[in-house]
Amino acid sequence: MKNKKLIAIVTAIMMAGAVFTGCGKNSSSEKTIKIGVLYSTTGAFSISEKPMVNAAKMAIDEINAKGGIKGKMIEPIYSDYNSDPAKASEKIKKLILEDEVVATVGTNSSATRLAVIPVVQNNNSVLVYNTFYEGEKPSPNVIYTNTVPSQQISAFIPWITKNLGKKVFFVGSDYVFPKKSIAFAKNLLEASGGQIVGEEYLPLGHTEFSSLINKIKQAKPDVVFSAIAGDSVVPFYKQYKQYGISSSDIPICSIATHEGSVKGIGVDAAAGHYSSFDYFNTVDTKESKAFVEKYKSTFNDNTTVTNQVEGAYHGVYLLAAALEKADKLDTESIIKAFSGLEIDTPQGKIKMDKENHHAWLNSYIGKVNSKGTFDIIYHADGLVEPVIQ
To answer: Which helix (H) or strand (E) covers residue 214, if one does?
Structure first.
């Protein structure tokens, strides 16, 4: 009898301890909101993604300094996938299942985004994607904060044919974003009365462009429309100049060459070429200037602000606004809360579409100047609608 009483007392003490331990754990977790930050600081896309990590961190630190979200601090869980889509799938699965993040900000190339989407959907989580992409078959679990072709190319091709010429040679890296974007651009070119004089794709990470450049010389286009992406951008531009084509002869009009790329290319080979994005770091507004200056003073790592950096920055702010608006922190409530959101960003006010999970954004065309920055030579009148294929 005494043994039974002793066992009952010990069991009661153990159960009480377990309850108190559980309460302590829940109390601690309720103080923060976990968010995954999934970018590469190594590999083929590190030139773009390292500063995106910086921008996400800067936004998170700013939000926390202002009191967080509903009184809770954002707890970022940083993860590097080395520009490897397969590794990105593993990393985001860990973020969702082990780290229990409410959403993940990140990934960059379309190949990586497409690799992680099944994991995000199967585990009913949220991905906030901050890079320009081809705009095809969007996932219901992804929020897209950067441009689709309708926002990046619709004004670019007519501007090219009006100002630079109608004969266009298309080049791109051999994966989905360049191919789909060039298909969109070709349709616009034909509608604008232009002529396709060549089309070539090279493997991602390609570094030897002499054969391609010889084909461009033989075709004698007015313009090269480029969707060469990642670290391949730098050798392409350098060899383009090295093998005898200048920007005054045949300018490159790119949808993937940003300020970070120009820094790697160098002014001598980059000046005079064009790019189209929703943001350049030379946008002449008080908000943009303050953003660029703060980034420079915060991160002394030789990176620079690009449209993707600004996209990662406002992507975190859009997520924070959705979390603030959501009734609960489950996936359905968070995604619903994005609908119709409007926020102020370094590029100006932007808004989320009420239906398709994409942002209405600005449209700019920039020309690389002798300082290695972009002179803005075109700005769309108002925000441009994201048209999804």
So the answer is: helix 210-219
The superfamily in CATH containing domain 151-278+366-379 is Response regulator (3.40.50.2300)
The b/e string for 273-290 (b: 16+ C-beta within 10 A; e otherwise) is bbbbbbbbbbbeeeebee
226-263 core/surface letters (b: 16 or more CB in 10 A; e: else): bbbbbbbbbbbbbbbbeeebebeebbbbbbbbbbbbbb
Instruction: Band the pLDDT of 231: cuts 50, 70, 90.
Output: confident
| In contact, 109 and 43? CB cutoff 8 Å | no
Q: Residue 369 is inside which H or E element, if any?
A: none
C-alpha closest to that of 200 among 238, 167, 227: 227
Question: With pLDDT > 90 as the criterion, what percentage of the chain qualifies?
Answer: 85
- CA dist 244 → 1, 212, 275 (Å): 98, 13, 21
Q: pTM for this one? A: 0.86
C-alpha Rg value of the chain to the nearest Å:
24
* Per-domain residue ranges of the chain: 30-148+284-362, 151-278+366-379
Q: Answer yes or no: CATH 3.40.50.2300 is held by domain 30-148+284-362.
A: yes
